[in-house]
Amino acid sequence: MHDCQIYTSENLASASRESIGGKAWNLCRLIENGIRVPSFYVISSTVLRSSIGLPSDPSRGDRKDLNVDEVRQRLKDFEFPDPLLQTILSAHAVTFPEGQSVAVRSSVASEDGRRLSFAGMFETILGIDHADDLCTAIRRVWMSAFSPTVVAYRDRHGLSGFDDRVAVIVQELVDADRSGVCFTCDPVTGVEDSVVVNSVFGLGEGIVGRGFAADTYRIDRKTKTIDRVIADKAEQLVLDPTSGEVKIRSLETQDRSRDTLSDKELTDLAESALRIESIY
Question: Global pTM?
Fold first, then answer.
């Protein structure tokens, strides 16, 4: 039953957006257009519904019939049955033959859309490399879709009910020494004259999940001139090479006010961002 609900590189092209969610769908589009993406597989949204006994109706994103407290309790109590666990572990072994550390991320049908992004509201768990931890991480991602934060965001934007089309991405964790987010317009004003980059030292969760101070760069689309505001960066998130755990590390004094990215890296990044923009 579960075999067709786990998507690897071999069958991702056949998956629908409703089954793998907006984030995974967009990752597939990037791969189709030759953009490098860290390896991943997807546990489809049908696994959540079938695992805890929710009625299957993947076309609906406004489940007014759900009691959220009951769903969260079912998820807390859920134990992965052996057939499902073995299917997940098989996909994991095929995707990560060298036993790489992974990130476990959400991918919801209503996430990362044109109108609403749900940015930072679903949980992401980093540094997973054991089966027991993997199951716990998957459960935590599922539960985050029914959190008070998501409830409030949906209500604020006029969305009633809940979206139970929650898929999970298991993706290779890049042990980055610098990370960030890139926008092809100003994320506040929407003005499209510059590419905007926010970047930090260490793993990207420091900027998107922990709110660490970040450098801000603006690269003019036409002239390629760069404006920069360098932050006082006190901390970074790192992957401990011994334990595999994600830890907060203080930056050396001389690094706190140092640029995270060079002009060449920023120019290349802006070009890549504009290429990706053209895909959409």
Answer: 0.87
